[in-house]
């Protein structure tokens, strides 16, 4: 199975700051990567697919990049509503697997 | 609008079988696949399995021996059955729709149902 390792596990940032979350795959996943946001007590929501494509309705301050085994999610100009946990998911191969998550809090 | 809603028992005894139902609306199960994803309390997400538009299934190899996913398209329902439950199966169980633009991602999720495995 492809292992997805996210870092950091938790992150504290100030409003207006730029935040970057990393996701490393145990093998090349050829951009088969998605990012999800999960607010406390809610279901996950799709943010990014194919490593760098923004899902419909997602604010443009979110962006994804990367290739091979290394991927990242960047949030520009952090807003209070961005406080959440973020998960990456690879779908290059079965079983589809998720990273352990990054919990983003306000400083 | 697109909706998914999970239902089932909140408490299951160890070694028993878990049965959950996902009732969908706003789309057809013959046009979109549906997966089950679970999340232990305070932990990450685990994809369990998928039922494709044609009715075929794929499972996480870690769960395959215990898991079965089926559907009733006339009732717009997807079913999960997992046997030999243990305490580590305590989690919130979600059903999620495969996104149209990239099918192995999930664009709509149910609210989730918390299942506790305990005697």
Question: How are the elements arranged and paired?
Answer:
The complex is a heterodimer of chains A (107) and B (119).
Chain A: E1 4-7, E2 10-13, E3 19-25, E4 33-38, E5 45-49, E6 53-54, E7 62-67, E8 70-75, E9 84-90, E10 97-98, E11 102-106
Parallel strand pairs in A: 2-11
Antiparallel strand pairs in A: 1-3, 3-8, 4-5, 4-9, 5-6, 7-8, 9-10, 9-11
Chain B: E1 3-7, E2 11-12, E3 18-25, E4 34-39, E5 46-51, E6 57-59, E7 67-72, E8 77-82, E9 91-98, E10 106-109, E11 113-117
Parallel strand pairs in B: 2-11
Antiparallel strand pairs in B: 1-3, 3-8, 4-5, 4-9, 5-6, 7-8, 9-10, 9-11
Mean of the pLDDT scores of chain A?
97
Low-pLDDT residue intervals, each spanning 5 or more residues of chain B: none
What share of residues are in beta strands of chain A? Answer: over 45%
Protein chain pair with the most extensive contact, residues per chain: A-B, 23 and 24 residues
**Number of H/I helices of chain A:** 0
Structural class by helix and strand composition of chain A: mainly beta
**Class inferred from helices and paired strands of chain B:** mainly beta
Strand percentage of chain B: over 45%
Question: How many DSSP H or I helices of chain B?
Answer: 0
Along the chain, the helix and strand elements of chain A come as EEEEEEEEEEE
What overall form of chain B do the CA principal axes indicate?
globular
Q: Radius of gyration of chain A, rounded?
A: 13 Å
* Beta strand count of chain B: 11
Mean pLDDT of chain B: 96
Principal-axes shape call of chain A: globular
Spatial separation of the terminal alpha carbons of chain B = 39 Å
Proportion of residues in helical segments of chain B:
under 10%
Largest sheet of chain A: 7 strands, mixed
N-C termini distance of chain A? 36 Å
């Amino acid at each position: 199975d492809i292992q997805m390792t996210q870092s950091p596990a938790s992150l504290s940032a100030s409003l207006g700051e730029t935040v970057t979350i990393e996701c490393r795959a145990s093998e090349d996943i050829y951009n088969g990567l998605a990012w999800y946001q999960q607010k406390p007590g809610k279901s996950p929501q799709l943010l990014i697919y194919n490593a760098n494509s923004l899902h419909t309705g997602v604010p443009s301050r979110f962006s994804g990049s990367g290739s091979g085994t290394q991927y990242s999610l960047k949030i520009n100009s952090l807003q209070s509503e961005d406080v959440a946990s973020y998960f990456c998911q690879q779908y290059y191969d079965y079983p589809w697997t998720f990273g352990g998550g990054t919990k983003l809090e306000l400083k | 609008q697109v909706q998914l809603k999970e239902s089932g028992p909140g408490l299951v005894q160890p070694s028993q079988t878990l049965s959950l139902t996902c009732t969908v609306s706003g789309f057809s199960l013959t046009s979109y696949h549906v997966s089950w994803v679970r999340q232990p309390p305070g932990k990450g997400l685990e994809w369990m399995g998928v039922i494709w538009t044609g009715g075929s299934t794929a499972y996480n190899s870690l769960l395959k021996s215990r898991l079965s996913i089926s559907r009733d398209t006339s009732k717009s329902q997807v079913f999960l059955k997992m046997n030999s439950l243990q305490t580590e199966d305590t989690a919130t169980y979600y059903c999620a729709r495969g996104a149209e633009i990239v099918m192995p991602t999930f664009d709509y999720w149910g609210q989730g149902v918390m299942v506790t495995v305990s005697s």
